[in-house]
Automatic annotation (TrEMBL):
InterPro entries: PHP_dom, PHP_domain, Pol/His_phosphatase_N, Pol/histidinol_Pase-like. Residues 3-68 form the Polymerase/histidinol phosphatase N-terminal domain. Pfam families: PHP. This is PHP domain-containing protein. It comes from the Bacteria.
Amino acid sequence: MKADLHCHTVLSDGAMDLDQLFCYAKRIDLDYIAVTDHESAHSIPAALELGRQLDLNVIPGAEITARHKETGINVHLLCYYPADTKRLQKKLDKDLKLFSESVVHSYQTLMDEYPVTMEQLYDAARQSTGIYYTHIMQVLSLMGYTGHPIGELHQKLFSPGSPHKFPTDYMYADEAIDLIRSCGGVPVLAHPGQYKNPELMEMMAQEHMIDGIELYHPRNDQTTMDQIQSICKEHDLFMTGGTDFHGLYTKTPYPLGSFLCPQEGLERLILAGKQANEAFHKKKGKDIRPDEA
């Protein structure tokens, strides 16, 4: 089974809408796909319905940014199979609002250097649930300041320490994981290679914060993958995989399906999702059949 479990759409910082993404997935014969937009579960109902129409298995999801208390690192958590998407989104909306405000602030600092308007930014973000740095780069690309939206100019403007980059006060990782679990979801640590801190993975595994770790991903080198496999074996965690697909909004191009989830990890994730959903509905006292991928 071919499964790409890390994809983004125009609802966050991706280039494709849901229809375009799923038609692409069918053309390359994907069996499973997960849409994991940043701080957004808004796509889940439409994704499940479109998946049924196209005979494409959809694993509902979202990607959540949170701060790890011990290290201070902003980690990304993939939330799969959330049952209570309304409660999840209500909390995510607070962080998305803070993040969007920081992006708008960044944009305003650029207005002295570039002849851009607020209307251009809002137009670039019109299909999204928030405002992302991608939308700033859309504006600058359209005006001819760069031919690569996530290239050298993006690096110059928004790298850590830049006067145009402002921090967002995200929720703590333990709070985010409690939220995921209380909503009937399954937490997976995304792209550990991005954090360059193996101890972070070990701590989160030891503290039973996560059920799995993303093994196959563009940012995971062989050393990182060896560490992931060792930690997952020691703590009985499953391993997933995904391209982190953004379409043209990426520094290095990777087509959909470039990084796939291993079969065992897919099977364990599906089982974990069903068990988490069943536990959620049992606790809520509702006899409701959870959505199935």
